[in-house]
Amino acid sequence: MNKKIAFIGLGNLGTPMAKNLIAAGYHLQVYNRTTSKAEELEQASITVCSTPAQAAEGVDFVITILSDDAVVTEIVTGADGILKTMQKGALHISMSTISPQTSEQLLAIHKEAGTSYLAAPVFGRPEAAAAKKLWVCVSGETEAKKSAEDILNAMGQGIIDFGETTGGANVVKLTGNFMIMAALETMAEAYTIAEKNGLDRQQVADFFSSTLFACPIFQNYGKFIAAKNYEPVAFKAKLGYKDARLALALTQKSEVPAPLVSLVNTRLLTQVAKGKGDSSDWIAAFGEGVSEDAGV
Amino acid sequence: MNKKIAFIGLGNLGTPMAKNLIAAGYHLQVYNRTTSKAEELEQASITVCSTPAQAAEGVDFVITILSDDAVVTEIVTGADGILKTMQKGALHISMSTISPQTSEQLLAIHKEAGTSYLAAPVFGRPEAAAAKKLWVCVSGETEAKKSAEDILNAMGQGIIDFGETTGGANVVKLTGNFMIMAALETMAEAYTIAEKNGLDRQQVADFFSSTLFACPIFQNYGKFIAAKNYEPVAFKAKLGYKDARLALALTQKSEVPAPLVSLVNTRLLTQVAKGKGDSSDWIAAFGEGVSEDAGV
Amino acid sequence: MNKKIAFIGLGNLGTPMAKNLIAAGYHLQVYNRTTSKAEELEQASITVCSTPAQAAEGVDFVITILSDDAVVTEIVTGADGILKTMQKGALHISMSTISPQTSEQLLAIHKEAGTSYLAAPVFGRPEAAAAKKLWVCVSGETEAKKSAEDILNAMGQGIIDFGETTGGANVVKLTGNFMIMAALETMAEAYTIAEKNGLDRQQVADFFSSTLFACPIFQNYGKFIAAKNYEPVAFKAKLGYKDARLALALTQKSEVPAPLVSLVNTRLLTQVAKGKGDSSDWIAAFGEGVSEDAGV
Amino acid sequence: MNKKIAFIGLGNLGTPMAKNLIAAGYHLQVYNRTTSKAEELEQASITVCSTPAQAAEGVDFVITILSDDAVVTEIVTGADGILKTMQKGALHISMSTISPQTSEQLLAIHKEAGTSYLAAPVFGRPEAAAAKKLWVCVSGETEAKKSAEDILNAMGQGIIDFGETTGGANVVKLTGNFMIMAALETMAEAYTIAEKNGLDRQQVADFFSSTLFACPIFQNYGKFIAAKNYEPVAFKAKLGYKDARLALALTQKSEVPAPLVSLVNTRLLTQVAKGKGDSSDWIAAFGEGVSEDAGV
Fold first, then answer.
1. What is the pLDDT of residue D2?
2. Partner residue facing C262 (CB), from A245, A255, A262
3. Domain spanning D4-163, CATH architecture
4. Which terminal residue of chain C has fewer beta carbons within 10 Å of its beta carbon, N or C?
């Protein structure tokens, strides 16, 4: 079996994912806009490419894990895009957080080109990616899911199948990111109420995240909010805002009045508008946002 | 040791709590506005009283678990209130969800009367109370906490101490109820987005509540929202709204701008204003509210 | 001078506008998807055309007053679009409520075709259009504004120049529609508070709209809200929602955290999601929305 | 006729109101916490009193124009309150912005004391008070309204009668202040959208406030928001927040889900929580609030 894969996108998530693929024995033809990012990977197991097209040459699978819809579309259809070289029957495993509409469009484009497309967005922070603890949501053609299984298992702790409609997994991903944002707003308000009433943020956070809310999101994100410490920047507020925009667009398109989606969108937009989109983590948009409004 | 306790309030939570005390060997002098509620309890272990004052006679501990601030205050200070008969040094264990301000006032009233007061609100639905799985939050004088320990342990799975300021535990309780409401709004919006985009509410709920949000609130409340089934009415929307009002008042008093507290308050107020305060569970305020707005 | 104009779009606003142009001595080459709409106009003064292209033949000015961005773009660039026949130097006066982005794109398209484009959206309900009381906001090239002046004056009571950036007038129009929505929400909440506190909605509305808020929006829209009477349907909720989406998109694109824009968007989206987008006026989205939530 | 009146409260509004009463020939027995405030008034026409009780001695009318419910109640029922000296049949004209509940309580207290009470809150900024342009809303007993007429006319441009329920005028006043806050939020968001899209705030404000929104609130308040100049501090953010709290409490008590009331309350609470309650005008809470969130 051919264990060569094209891997495009060496960001905070992509890099640990690539490492896990290498650990599983795959050889990666990597492409990243900033080439130096590839230096972190074991050099014997990779071939650094100068264009997406070059990375996609001669492989059965192309993985993309990129920042937004426009970038993914450009990587596929651009002058040096993967469609230029992907062989018939090869599969594009699209792991970025993008809109279901873009996913559907990419499917159509691939079909026309004789290639395949699978939506496979993931849940997990960089440390979860490193620990092979990502959750992978997939949707699309059964065939595609089956053929991608080993590769996806090499990066995550579980694959969840959301059906044959290609955009389905993207909807789940945007919905989940909204739920995380809502949890961040919830904790930021709750712990600030506690603080301003003379309680210890940390004790209150510990209580809730070990009882009623004893789950990864409230525990892992909650510790930053409890401590009012938003370093390091693992997921930029700017990227969080992008997801909030996609979630909001989804509610508009599918006609779901969702005031909480609006609220978390406004919170992230504020962080970005204040010029902190690049310099702060999305958790800070909520934690700092509520604290500043409360004057503490 | 005197194992006689006054127990006031046989509602959905009070009744299973009383049963656990009886199971632990206590004899209860019970008072409830609707006397017939006492019929559920083992008759040999209780003495049914016709006033709070009568219930409080000759005991070291008076437990109240009632619907709101006004009722608790009346039970303490009314013409037939417990202060009329409580013996010097006896302790009032106040387990209702009330405002920290009322708690502080009750403490002052008790101090003047030579009796003691402990704030000990609980987290848990009726089934948790029945299973002795309540979490008990306490705040107040160390002495009072120590003396109440055995009694509280007979009703819950853990006691968490939030310090010496009497209102502290009440703040934690209101904060926690806000967090639950926020989780309900989050799930109601999220699962409706999923539904209107062609996904299965139940599958999406199962995924999130077994991974990122694998915790009691998202699991236990989430199953009602996923199924759009809000029966039976375990906690009336009207009572949920009362808590939302207390939470909102808390943000105003302690000056915490908290748009999500406002949002969940509006959701519950809508349910009440529509005449469904008594006939529906608070979960329905969120689940039905979002579904109706979305036309599904 | 050639007094022949192409006029495209005979909706609730377009029809009275066309009548005023006819009254001012213009001959109109009209196009409307539903041809029968042209029967309302004086037949001697119009030529009914079967395509936009046919309407645009041989004229110096093409007016469009249509429902949304997609329709305007199709009318311009479609297979039977006006670009097919517009003569060099002719001017497209674009009076629909569309996004500034679409306006800029249309300008670029026209420039390439050797034709011109002027953004000229209007404020006013159908009765204002009939009374020649529209306010016309313009932005774009000075030359274009000058040449359109007589035509615009024949339809409105004033032309306001918002500069050379083509999208400027579109921004003003979306901003103004947001302000109207905000006034509707304000009145709906205010008069319902009055009502539920035993006051007369009408008296309260009369007081405010003749003193602090003595202006067209609070007077003309307020009378519907005061009377809880939202007939006839002058501007469909669906179209109001379209404008709310454009306004929301504008805040996202230009990075203005605007919770009130979100709130009014949610109100209109709710009306649409409930299936009342076509059957109710946008005023009803606010008036009925608040009343229903309040149970009155 | 006895033209002596007790006048209590020489704040930003009270002082010009007192001046107008003096101009109309009344002699005022004035009381103010800070005595020096009385120096602004014509000394021959006033008697400076050291307690409310002293001011209320021997007069038929006592006017109060104070900051909040607690202060008004204290002025009436306190150890040196007006009830100590008011003669039977004398009328308390209560012009402060207070809750309808407090108004009803004061009525009951006065009735028991053999004195009368009239709710007569006013609309208008200090400059309107100086120009005798206040709008006076009254509610209560017909007799009381009739006897107060001349006095009220000496301070305002019109008296509007909101019926016999004493709290009615207070509801109207709170509702109106909410409407003003909503207009402030509307303008702040609208003009910031305009600004961030390259338009001139001032031009956009001028357009709207001379056409669709040509009314005092949009004109007088709008000029501050357009210019981003919130000086001088005519009405402190802290007092605006007090009104927003009363309005919010009103929606809770009368069960009107009102998300816009929540939104404006949050805006003012944020200003206060940030420590700007005393140093900034309530207009700034909206104008600065939106600008800061938008990073401009």
1. 67
2. A262
3. 3-Layer(aba) Sandwich (3.40)
4. N
